[in-house]
Amino acid sequence: MVKPIIKCYVGSDRFDEGIGALRVRASHLSGDEGRAHADPPHNRLSSRVSTTCTVTRGVWMSGTGSHTPTDPRAHTGSWHPDRLDRSPLLRACEATARAAFVKSLRCHNVQKNELIVAEGTPSTYVHMIVDGCLMVWKQRADRNLQVTGFLFPGDLLGALAGVHYLYSARAVTRSTLASVRQTELNELSDTYPNLRHALYRTVTSEFALAQDQLLILGAMNAAERVATALLQFDRRQRARGMDADAPLWLPMRRTDLASYLALELPTLSRAFSRLRQDGIIACPSTTEVALRDRKALERMSCEAPI
Questions:
Q1: Which CATH number goes with the domain that contains 129?
Q2: What is the pLDDT of residue 125?
Q3: Which residues of the chain fall below pLDDT 50?
Q4: Could you report the per-residue pLDDT of 193-228, keeping only the tens digit for each?
Q5: Which of 15, 30, 40, 80 has the most CB atoms in a 10 Å sphere around its CB?
Q6: Sheet holding 288-291: strands in order across?
Q7: What is the reported pLDDT for 35?
Q8: Could you give the CA distance from residue 81 to residue 105 in angstroms, rounded to a whole number?
Q9: Domain co-membership, 72 together with 179
Q10: What is the SS3 assignment for 226-251?
Q11: Are 50 and 186 contained in the same domain?
């Protein structure tokens, strides 16, 4: 009998401690959980067999899957559309378009740090995040990485791609993706105008996220950048149907968040510490940030109430 997959997301640097905070490592876990979250080599395409997701009595089980996370063709499991309730795209589709789109999806799991797409490679698939978190980045001329965004359940990866991916993406945590070929998605959008309109709205939202980062990287100081980013994460989490009082789930490494905000790591750490000391945020766990005073964050970011 196949055991259910145990989801236990482990973050990196604590948001509520200083620069020398100890990283929470998978070795602290036991049994299958520890092995599932062991850190694979950073930024390489895994040759291990990923697992697909099958539904048995409402529980997601492991099964044979594709050989790489970028090629999810070997789908053998059944699909349960309730897992996509957090997708703004599918919520905007009428029943027939939704059913056709869900039928085209192939579900597969990727391990923490596995490469999903690589910049400059052919954009064969569009991926929808079902569970977990992905990090998107571009390589600068100096060979360093610039983090350009984070994707959460319901978000799409590759919707804005042309012939080739313009960025790279890897899994921040163990994640579940639902993927569809670009050609098949194009055919579906031609058949179902409602799906085409929903995709347009989704792509527009993805473009808005890119504009958000331009805002962050503009003339804002460190405190304003952190406040703006937290409000944006909060807005996106609530758009996925999460409770307004639920803490933000931020499983990314602090160094990656610093890259996203174009800040040095010590500067980011001081900004978080100041917000926590002022009672504006709280950090109930290593991967969570609770917004205690949204009005104060809005004043700091110069944004209107969200």
A1: 2.60.120.10
A2: 93
A3: 1-79, 304-306
A4: 988 888 888 777 667 767 777 777 777 889 999 999
A5: 15
A6: 248-249, 288-291, 281-285
A7: 36
A8: 10
A9: yes
A10: HHHHHHHHHHHHHHCCCCCCCCEECC
A11: yes
